[in-house]
Design brief:
The chain is 27% helix and 27% strand. It is of the alpha+beta class. It has a domain at 54-159: Nuclear Transport Factor 2, Chain: A (Roll). A hairpin with a 2-residue loop joins strand 3 (137-148) and strand 4. Mean pLDDT is 78; it is low at 16-41.
Length: 160
C-alpha cells in the first residue's frame, strides 16, 4: 500500500452448495411447522428473524411519534411510502402505496401528529395511539410495533 500500511489479506471465496443436505431439509421442515404470527411472518421470507427485547430497542414513545408522523405523511401524499419499507410489514407498505397513489392526484393535505400514548403489553411489543391533525380534522392512528432484528417493526397501523 502507498501509505506503508500492510493490508489484510482478502478471505478466499467458496462456492455454496444450492441443494440442501438432509440436515438443512430437516431444519426447513421444522421451521415451516412452527406457529406463525400474523403480520410478523411477512417481514421478509429469506432470513431468520430474531425477537428483540425492549431494552435493546430505541425509546418506544419517541419512536412511535416519528413513525406515526411518517405514516400519515405517506398516506397524505407528502412522503414516499417506500421510505418506510424497513420499519413496516409488506401488508402495511402495500396499503400505504395504495393510499399514496389515490392522494397523489389531488393536493396533498398538511398533517401533524399532536400527541402519542404508548403501552407495552409484553416485552418487545408496543401499542401506541396518536392523535393526528389532518387538515381541519383530527383523526386517530393506532400502531402495534414489535422488536425484530434490533429494530421496531410496525405490524399493524389503523387510521380512524
Amino acid at each position: 500500500m502507498p501509505t506503508g500500511l500492510v493490508g489484510a489479506p482478502r478471505p478466499a471465496l467458496r462456492q455454496v452448495n444450492r441443494t440442501p443436505d438432509s440436515a438443512g431439509r430437516a431444519l426447513n421442515r421444522r421451521l415451516s411447522t412452527q406457529p406463525t404470527r400474523p403480520g410478523v411472518d411477512d417481514i421478509d421470507d429469506f432470513s431468520e428473524r430474531r425477537a428483540t427485547p425492549t431494552r435493546e430497542l430505541p425509546e418506544p414513545v419517541a419512536w412511535s411519534a416519528r413513525l406515526a408522523q411518517a405514516i400519515v405523511e405517506a398516506r397524505s401524499g407528502i412522503r414516499s411510502p417506500q421510505q418506510l419499507s424497513r420499519w413496516t410489514t409488506r401488508a402495511i407498505l402495500t396499503d400505504l402505496r395504495a393510499a399514496h397513489r389515490s392522494v397523489r392526484e389531488r393536493e396533498a393535505i398538511q398533517v401533524r401528529v399532536r400527541s402519542v400514548h404508548a403501552s407495552q403489553p409484553a416485552d418487545g411489543v408496543v401499542e401506541a395511539t396518536a392523535v393526528v391533525s389532518w387538515g381541519t380534522r383530527h383523526r386517530a392512528l393506532a400502531l402495534r410495533m414489535e422488536g425484530w432484528d434490533g429494530k421496531w417493526i410496525c405490524v399493524s397501523a389503523d387510521l380512524v
